[in-house]
Amino acid sequence: MTLITGVYRLHLHEILYHLVRVRNPWGDSNEWKGSWSDQDTKWKQIDDETRHKIGLQNKADGEFWMDFFTDFVKEFEEVSICTMG
Question: What's 36's DSSP letter?
Fold first, then answer.
């Protein structure tokens, strides 16, 4: 089960992106390599305050960002919602 650990709306060059932070189910270093991945050059266009606010970490920890509408919905077929309590 893949975990969504965060969501964020971000404007870049007058485009609104809907990003989701995903953690792979194995918790290892396997990560998304496409748009908005840790190494994507788009992050260099985002100010430090925003990167800090959303908790961007450029490390192989199994957690990564994806664009919801262009990538997440293509890569994942099912989403389950649960609460921890």
Answer: T
**Are the C-beta atoms of 8 and 25 separated by less than 8 Å?**
no
| Residue 69 pLDDT | 96
Distance between CA atoms of 42 and 25, rounded to whole angstroms? 25
> CA 13, 15, 8, 19 torsion: positive or negative?
negative
Q: Residue 63 in contact with residue 21, Cβ under 8 Å?
A: yes
Reference 54, options 66, 62, 69; nearest CA is 66
Among 29, 30, 54, smallest CA distance to 42 is for 54
Give this prediction's pTM: 0.86
Q: Please give the Cα distance from 42 to 22 (Å, whole number).
A: 18
Q: What is the pLDDT of residues 3-43, one digit of tens each?
A: 888 999 999 999 999 999 998 877 778 899 999 998 899 99
